Amino acid sequence: PEGVNVIGFGLSLERPTMIKYKIDNIRDLVGHKVNLDMVKKNPICRIEKTGGVSERQLQVLNKRYDNIESRLGYIQQKLKNLGIKTDSNSLASNSSQSSLPLDIVIRMNPARACRSPVYAVKLLRKAYSVFTSNHTHSSVNKPGSVQLPETGVERGVAEVKVTLIYANVNNTEVAIGNTHIQGDGNLLRYVTRLVDERRDSGLYETLPKPQLHAVDDIIDRLTNTSKHNVTTLVSGQLSKHNFLLPEADRPNLADILAASLSEEHGLGGGAVSAWMKRVNQVLDKN
What we know:
Layout: H1 14-21, H2 36-41, H3 53-81, H4 90-95, E1 102-108, H5 116-124, E2 130-136, E3 160-166, E4 173-176, E5 179-182, H6 184-196, H7 209-221, H8 227-238, H9 253-265, H10 271-284
Parallel strand pairs: 1-3, 2-3
Antiparallel strand pairs: 1-4, 4-5
Helix pairs in contact: 5-6, 6-9, 7-9, 8-9
């Protein structure tokens, strides 16, 4: 081309070699001023995917580290999806959250009083002595229609104390020490984990993995608590099966959450009523 006097070409091996051997000036590697003694004494440059034993071991360690990092990222995302917020000692504080006695404070909007706190108390009573109380915050005019049942356990001897407060909040909020959870599904997830610390509830994390993933999928879909969404999901599943999971022969956590939302919206009749009866039979059974 016009104005071009020199054309340069090559395999571009110099730059990778400089990077590998930490040479910052290409004149030290090629050209008439190169130290020939250095060329004679240095080994041949090998730029390979796998090198010696130590290099392969390093690659194995790096791969393990990447896997660990990936799993930590997955756990972090799951915690985010669950609405869990913790302090700087998040994992350490989570491990001590179930130390007794335990205070669980539930804040709920009276305009959409879901029965998930009632179901949570029923679950907790399968493994713990529970004290309940109901309150109305000054930010609202009157309480909702759902009240926690009395358990006959005194506050001073209860292992778990559950307080329901009607307040001006958008979604159900749960506080357990420094941990804050949002949503009815996440409340039931947390309570079921507490129960599983003492006995196998068979409702959630002790299920086979395929069922557990299916339960999580339904719970996530029910974060949309609208009557239309709940009706569509519940009616669609129960038109073919006895429970929300096709292969299930007993209710699980997805059924419990869906039943609490179904009661909130006044769903019933036919298969839905029979299903809700089966769910409550399991909850009422010690």
